[in-house]
Amino acid sequence: MNLVKTEEPAVSEAAVSRHRGILETAAQLICSDGYERTSMNAIAEACQLTKAGLYHHIRSKEHLLSEIMHYGMDIFEEQVLSQVSGITDPVERLETTLDKHVQLVTGGRNKEVTVILHEHDTLTGDARAQINARKKNYVRFLEASFAEAIAQGRIRQVEPKVAAFTFLGMVNWIYKWHRADGEFSPQRIAQEMRRILFGGLVDEVSPPSVESGERKQG
Question: If one looks up domain 60-202 in CATH, what number appears?
Answer without folding.
Answer: 1.10.357.10
